[in-house]
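User: Okay, second chain of the day. Same drill as before: sequence in, structure tokens out.
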Amino acid sequence: MHQKTLSDKWFEGSILGALILIALIMLFPFYYITAVSFTSPIEYLQKTMVLFPDKWTLDSYRYLLSNNVFTKAAGMSAFLGTVGTALSLIVTSAGAYTLSRKRLLGRRVLLILILMTTLFNPGIIPPYLVVRELHLINTVWALILPVLTSGWYVILMKGFFDSIPDELEEAAKIDGATDLGVWFRIILPLSLPSLAAFGLFYAVAYWNTFFSAVLYITKPDLRPLQIVLQMLLIDSSSSASGEIATQMAGDIPIPTDTLKMAAVVIATVPILIVYPFLQKHFAKGVMVGSVKG
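Assistant: Same drill. Structure tokens below.
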């Protein structure tokens, strides 16, 4: 066994130190935002920078979570993240399983058409016209149906389904199972790593819904959390921020910077909580779907 020299140890130590330093630099903004969110407005105004509050307070969080505008926006984002993700996984997995069956007529043509959707972007106007003609403007479905699935995710999940032996399907068919039964009872339970990986992708996308809400939503009650967060963070002199601040504040002064930081933390934490539970499936689900295709 090769014994490490002093230069090897110095080199490894310097690399480790550099990585730790980079990690601390990347984590510092989130730590600072979190610290400010637990700081009282008076202390925040008195100090140039708050790294550790003298007195930790939950006032900003209490105010946000008791405010109708913010809670409605959070509820809308939660609805998009749960219902939207579930529907997207159903559509994506069903399409990928169908395309993975070699007996499907026109299979190659469908694959080429799906691949073309990943190469060419129609822009903003065609999707908007479709949503408008379907009378989906100012409905929650305008934020789900246009992004219900992704051609790239369908192709990757198809690669995962290709790795499942055909004998399992044949055995199920002998027992009297239909194609729908095979997909629901056999394929989906075996696809948990892939579903977890793509479910995380979809959940993050739905939770961070912003641009589509700007295009399709004008009703205040249907605004997702990212829209409200953007209105809180931009200059209070703008009309959008003034509108949301007036709705949220009422007789209370316009929210302070501590309130804005608390809103950022609330918008970030749910995804940070979900990711550790899916991490063990994440790498396996993506790699299997991308290697075999």
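The chain has two domains: 6-46, 61-291.

User: Thanks, on to the next one.
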